[in-house]
Structures are given as structure tokens and as C-alpha cells.
Design brief:
Distance between the termini: 15 Å
Strand content: 15-25%
Shape: elongated
CATH architecture of the largest domain: 3-Layer(aba) Sandwich
Number of domains: 2
Structural class: alpha/beta
């Protein structure tokens, strides 16, 4: 490919090395530190961006300064960190993993992390481990909930929701789900209204994309419908839950515990109210948006994101030669 286009890569070193070795003849890949100022500088003369980080917002100002910029390819299904003005710019192609259902169905880390949070919560594992670290040994302080026969509620019954539901069935749970977009339901999930999911479930797991319709979907009203002491897991996006309402529900005991891999406003979370609560309460577990972060999976999705960029510029060359 003549006049190799410059493509900035945001993501881990090992993934950059893998795609650079594989596609380096076609594209001049440049790894960028996850620093907003550095990214803004690198984009100025770039033709594209591969984002496997989601740590930095991609702003209209950044892209407007790059006269050659043509494509963003994310190694994620979500792109809510990209400015809507950029997304609506018809001269910029935006690719996400939503297009790659066959690839995604074999990626399980996010569902596995969801289940890890769930098990840790219902057994109060972090509290029990900390208890032993202080030199104590009193198991009666840490009663766990048996999952057999309990109800697991899934909000968003797509690929990840169905995988988590299948884990629930393996543990002997009854599984109910809400998804207004699903036309064909698997036999192991009983479709319900969202109100029924919240009122009937002992554990609720959230798996939806952020849209204008889903922001604040898990509202104060829905949280008030739960069984007292129910558990909430969210590995989708922080904006899905009314976080102030969740905090109030934890404080009142209406919600027995929550496992969150995402927060509204991440990664700037040092003064976040939920983080402050979690520092002193073992019934709130927060991880740094790492549910899907396993090297085997990251290499696959970064390679796919790079393939789209390479194909995009190859098609451009073909158009010029026709």
C-alpha cells in the first residue's frame, strides 16, 4: 500500500506488537500513551485510530484538527466515549465489535467476570478474606446465600446476558429476563417485564448498551421493587444505573450488595460516592472496567479492529485505481 497511512493505537503493548507485526507493511501503526494531550498531538497527522482502551474521550476538537483523519475502529462493542459529533460525521467511518457477532460469541471473559462478582457478593468473599487477614476466624459473621433454587434476573438478554443466564442454570437457579429487542428466547430464560425481573429476582445482572432509552434505566423506582437484600451486578455501563439511588439502597439495606465493573464518569473516580462507600463496606465490589480484559480476548479483538482499518485503506486504494 503506497504512502502508508498513519494509524494511532490506544491499548496494551502486547496487542500493539501483535498487530504491528501482522499488518505493519500496510499501515504505519503508532502506539500512543493513554494521555489526552499526547493523543491529541498524535491524531493531528493521523489517518485513523484503533481504540482498545476506552480510557480517553475522543472529542470533536481532536478530530477537527486532523485533516487526513478517516476512520475509528474500536476493539469494543461500545463507543459512548466518542463525541456524538464525530459519530455523526459522514466523512469518518466508525467501526465497532457490534459488527462481529461470530467473533463475540466465543469471547467469554466479561460473562466470567460477571459471575466472579456475583459469587464474591453472595458469599461475602472479600469481607471474609479481610476478616482472616486481621487474625480472626469467625465464620458465623459471613453467612452466604445458596444459589440453588434462587432466581437470577437478566436485564439485556443478548450474547452476554445469555451466557450469564447459562451459568445461572448450571448453578440450579431459575432465570428470568427482560429484553424488548429479543424476538427468539432461549429455553433457559423466562421472559418477563423489567418490573417483574426486579421484584422476583434474588440477583439481577445488567447487560445493555448505553442509549438515550437506557440511561438511568435502573431507576430508584425499580430498585425499590427488589426483594430486600437482593444483589445487583453491572458490567455494562455505569450510566445504566441511577448511582445515587443505588447508594441509598445499599445504605438502607434494600440492596444487599452490588458488583460493578463500570461507573459513570470513569476513569475519574477518586471522589465518586460509590467508591467512597466501597472503601469501608465489603458488600460493594468495584473493578476498573476490566471484565473483558483477558490477553487472549484482547489480542483477538484488536486484530479484528486492525483488519477493518487495513481493509478500509485497501478499498480506498482500489477505488483510486478503478
Amino acid at each position: 500500500m503506497p504512502n502508508r497511512p498513519k494509524v494511532v493505537f490506544l491499548g496494551p503493548d502486547y496487542a500493539f506488537e501483535a498487530i504491528d507485526a501482522h499488518f505493519g507493511d500496510d499501515i504505519r501503526f503508532v502506539q500512543c500513551a493513554s494521555i489526552r494531550r499526547v493523543l491529541a498531538q498524535e491524531i493531528v497527522d493521523a489517518h485513523g485510530l484503533i481504540d482498545a482502551s476506552m480510557r480517553l474521550p475522543i472529542t470533536h476538537e481532536m478530530i477537527a484538527s486532523a485533516s487526513n483523519f478517516q476512520i475509528i475502529s474500536t476493539a469494543t462493542t461500545g463507543c459512548d466515549h466518542i463525541d456524538k459529533t464525530v459519530l455523526n460525521n459522514s466523512s469518518i467511518s466508525v467501526k465497532t465489535l457490534k459488527e462481529d457477532k461470530d467473533l463475540l460469541k466465543n469471547l467469554t471473559p466479561a460473562a466470567e467476570h460477571t459471575w466472579a462478582l456475583l459469587l464474591s457478593l453472595v458469599r461475602n468473599l472479600c469481607g471474609a478474606v479481610s476478616h482472616v487477614h486481621t487474625g480472626l476466624w469467625d465464620r458465623e459473621q459471613f453467612p452466604g446465600m445458596m444459589l440453588e433454587g434462587k432466581t437470577l434476573g437478566i436485564v439485556g438478554c443478548g450474547r452476554l446476558g445469555q451466557k450469564v443466564a447459562s451459568f445461572g442454570k448450571t448453578f440450579g437457579m431459575d432465570v428470568v429476563g427482560f429484553d424488548p429487542h429479543l424476538s427468539s428466547w432461549p429455553t433457559f430464560i423466562s421472559p418477563k417485564s423489567i418490573q417483574e425481573v426486579f421484584s422476583n429476582s434474588h440477583v439481577i445482572s445488567i447487560h445493555v448498551h448505553v442509549t438515550p432509552d437506557t440511561r438511568g434505566l435502573v431507576s430508584r423506582e425499580l430498585l425499590s421493587l427488589t426483594k430486600r437484600g437482593a444483589f445487583i451486578i453491572n458490567t455494562s455501563r455505569g450510566q445504566i444505573i441511577d448511582e445515587e439511588a443505588l447508594l441509598d439502597s445499599l445504605l438502607s439495606g434494600q440492596i444487599g450488595g452490588a458488583g460493578l465493573d463500570v461507573l459513570d464518569g470513569e476513569p475519574n473516580i477518586s471522589e465518586h460516592n460509590l467508591v467512597d462507600y466501597a472503601r469501608n463496606n465489603s458488600n460493594l465490589l468495584i473493578s476498573p472496567h476490566c471484565a473483558g480484559y483477558a490477553p487472549e480476548a484482547v489480542n483477538k479483538v484488536c486484530t479484528r479492529a486492525a483488519e477493518k482499518v487495513v481493509q478500509f485503506f485497501r478499498d480506498k486504494v482500489t477505488e483510486l485505481n478503478d
